[in-house]
Amino acid sequence: xxxxxxxxxxxxxxxxxxxxxxxxxxxxxxxxxxxxxxxxxxxxxxxxxxxxxxxxxxxxxxxxxxxxxxxxxxxxxxxxxxxxxxxxxxxxxxxxxxxxxxxxxxxxxxxxxxxxxxxxxxxxxxxxxxxxxxxxxxxxxxxxxxxxxxxxxxxxxxxxxxxxxxxxxxxxxxxxxxxxxxxxxxxxxxxxxxxxxxxxxxxxxxxxxxxxxxxxxxxxxxxxxxxxxxxxxxxxxxxxxxxxxxxxxxxxxxxxxxxxxxxxxxxxxxxxxxxxxxxxxxxxxxxxxxxxxxxxxxxxxxxxxxxxxxxxxxxxxxxxxxxxxxxxxxxxxxxxxxxxxxxxxxxxxxxxxxxxxxxxxxxxxxxxxxxxxxxxxxxxxxxxxxxxxxxxxxxxxxxxxxxxxxxxxxxxxxxxxxxxxxxxxxxxxxxxxxxxxxxxxxxxxxxxxxxxxxxxxxxxxxxxxxxxxxxxxxxxxxxxxxxxxxxxxxxxxxxxxxxxxxxxxxxxxxxxxxxxxxxxxxxxxxxxxxxxxxxxxxxxxxxxxxxxxxxxxxxxxxxxxxxxxxxxxxxxxxxxxxxxxxxxxxxxxxxxxxxxxxxxxxxxxxxxxxxxxxxxxxxxxxxxxxxxxxxxxxxxxxxxxxxxxxxxxxxxxxxxxxxxxxxxxxxxxxxxxxxxxxxxxxxxx
Length: 685
Prior knowledge:
It is built from 31 helices and 9 strands. It has 685 residues and is an alpha/beta fold. Among the domains are: 169 residues, 3-Layer(aba) Sandwich (Rossmann fold), CATH 3.40.50.300; 81 residues, Orthogonal Bundle (Helix Hairpins); 170 residues, no CATH class. Helix 14 runs antiparallel to helix 15. It starts with a helix and ends with a helix. 46% of the residues are buried.
């Protein structure tokens, strides 16, 4: 069928954009669709779905950006989404974006796509990088060997975009040759054909018999389940006996595909003498010792820059916020005192905090997107994987976890760089509880007050508890809600290249605006609730509903040796970990202006409540075992309201958000009780 015939039969032509990570697929998508983009989620799955449109010769094209994936196996939700869309949605055309400088790796996905027999063209991207590496590609021979149209591109410089859109218009709906590979395991010639003969007549209409047979050889879990349902018990048992159970089938399929790839490259790719050897920088970046040091320096640099920018913006807006509070109190304070208090102690502090958090998040997003775009982030993941794998996390989890020491919101948002949904969710739950500066300051303050000479011992105990709990949480998730097989790391690293600021900006701006709209509204709501609980019924925190809640839960607090005041301070930590100190100051009677908690936070940002005064009051009213319980309960308590908002934004799941809150509430109670009773053994109450 010609493109014109296809366009007459369809009001809109659907184009699927596929490719492995780091091939420039996002850049191609952004240039093709421009501002005509929509971002949502795949139905019933918390994986981002990007769609866009463009018009060519009066015909509308719908571009669906499939998740970046290395293959079409059933190893992750991303892979399942991509292959289900190609098989069941039957797009008019698939554009597979490949990295011209990494053809051995990139063409593996092409081989899988071609085995489906779908209409397809190749976008041969990063031609400039391939040239710098000394690779000369004979495009005519390359296209002839593969059997599908090939469009050479350097998308970062917008080279080839117009040619790609023209090729899409020409090839939409045109079937391409099916890649048939002989992939019999060693010592079992003819097995693939026998499998095809056995399953013929049982394969659903959407699937090709040859492709299903290959997937059975690969031990693909979804295809195995599918065929088991299609066949009766005796036939399935007979088929199951034919399948190798020692990965020989999977190796045979992979070997056949790589044989095909190597033949194509041998016929069409020449490695010239001016090949650029591995750079000194890359040798440093991928060395265990120097790469670790470099990664820490780069991460710290980006974090410090984000903090400086955010702090500067907060300093700039603080006088405006204070001035706004004074104007509200002067203009409506007498006639409408409740409204004035709500605006002055609730709305303005909420907007100020959302602004400060958002600026910091924007800086972190920009920094991580830059590292990913230039190709350095995979090097950091490669080095970090040697350590992270010990606790069941991928190397890319390093950046989010490290960022958590600056802000848990940034750590949760930074999990976007992790392709696997399973690993991303695990990292979100764990990184949301890395001790942020608020936790560290409060914990250090409490340790210094109560434990003096033995403070180093307590610090070590805190560090060990964090490491142990991180490991326990990771393994617990693996064996409960996140069961699955680890996909491992792809060790072939993408090349370095100049940053494409247009793509980086579009990516960051889309994520940032979405965060402000969704997480920002949740943050504002929680702040309003905190204001109301700490203000009513008579305008001060000591007699507020928040204090009533603390008194109601005092029997629970006594399990940790905490009276209602200290327990209330633990509740307040949900608003902000630093706010626990202000709550202590108010509830234990330190001289400070009365009012709702949000107002007190705003009034005392510069400077904070005097630590010496708080220390003197605490030492006389709280025992060492109770202080130890408070430290550990705070350490494992619910992340702050803003982090909870970020978790909801990233997971798009109320169940996961509530589940994380319940989990860390339980941890807080367990660690608090354990710390209190251990403290009783070593300290006097």
